[in-house]
Specification:
The chain has about 90 residues and is mainly alpha-helical. It is built from 4 helices and no strands. It has one domain (about 5-80): Non-ribosomal Peptide Synthetase Peptidyl Carrier Protein, Chain A (Orthogonal Bundle). The chain starts with a helix and ends in a 12-residue tail after the last helix.
């Protein structure tokens, strides 16, 4: 999976979910410290991400996600290439 495409889609979803301009979503944007996200916020966010990327997330791979870069890395590493979900290049 192409990192740039994944990042752009994650940035779009992050922007919509947390009401932050998409150009402010960077690799080092921290969900808790910068966006004030709590457990409930992140749970809803993960559901939105799974709608886009498929069942990528587990309790093991989400516990170390603190910023956008961590999130993109998990998606790239753990997305099943045979999954019916795909990333549009919009």
């Amino acid at each position: 999976m192409d990192r740039e495409i994944v990042f752009k889609k994650v940035a779009e979803i992050t922007s919509n979910r947390f009401k932050v301009p998409v150009d402010k979503v960077t690799d080092d944007l921290n969900f808790t410290n910068d966006l004030g996200a709590d457990f409930i916020d992140m749970a809803g966010f993960i559901v939105e991400l799974e709608d886009e990327f498929g069942d990528v997330f587990t309790s093991e791979n989400t516990e170390n996600i603190s910023d956008v870069s961590d999130l993109v890395d998990v998606i790239i590493r753990d997305t099943d290439p045979k999954s019916k979900k795909h990333i549009s290049k919009k």
